[in-house]
Amino acid sequence: DSICQAYEDEIQSLKEEIQLLTEKYEDSQQESTFFSEEAILKSIESFEREFQGESKGHEPPPDLKAELESLETDLSFLMKFVGIQFTSHSKKIIEKTKNRTVQKHRISGTCHSMSFQLEFQLLEMQNKENVCSAVTDLSIVMDSGEDSNVGKFLSSIEERGDILTFFKSLSSYAEWYEHRRCAFQHFK
Fold first, then answer.
1. Which of 25, 57, 78, 138 is the most exposed place for a label (fewest CB within 10 A)?
2. 101: alpha, beta or left, given left = phi > 0 and alpha = psi -120 to 50?
3. How far apart are CA 134 and CA 128, in angstroms?
4. What is the C-alpha separation between 61 and 72, in angstroms, rounded?
5. Helix (H, G, I), strand (E, B), or coil: what is residue 83?
6. Most confident of the following: 29-43, 54-68, 84-98, 143-157
7. What is the dihedral of CA 125, 131, 135, 136, to 10 degrees?
8. What's the rounded Cα separation, in Å, for the pair 32 and 104?
9. CB-based contacts of 135: which residues, under 8 Å, 6+ apart?
10. Measured CA distances, 4 to 1, 8, 12, 16, 18 (Å)
């Protein structure tokens, strides 16, 4: 009986592993359908050229290197200016049809000394002339302490799906929160 139970446990474990691998494979297939075959082939060719260039010891073109440094400088400036630093981002395509795409995003980061995490779905509808985007199922988790007004504000932002207002308010609130915290520390 114990040998049979061990085998059954092993079979169950293997079934769970197969299920997990199947889900990962379907996710990767779903994400790869987001790009056209032509775009994938171009990316592969570009990668091969870069790989061959690196193996021969070639440096990237100077203008590309300068552009990258410029972009890094701009990004650093913006992060210092608004105080928001993103620590992670993940995107998963939930549904993709000819005219409609639904993506699930998870973003986490810090603003001054406050941490935050956003999770939302981005619905993109395409008609003949343009693409319309809408944020749905917005969920915000933020370390706001005991302030109930912040909780009410976050609830209203979640209901409206207004990410832009969240980031504008977060930057200002976190900056003043940090000033208040320093002032209270000083008087303690």
1. 57
2. beta
3. 18
4. 17
5. coil
6. 84-98
7. -10
8. 15
9. 120, 121, 122, 123, 161, 162, 163
10. 5, 6, 12, 18, 21
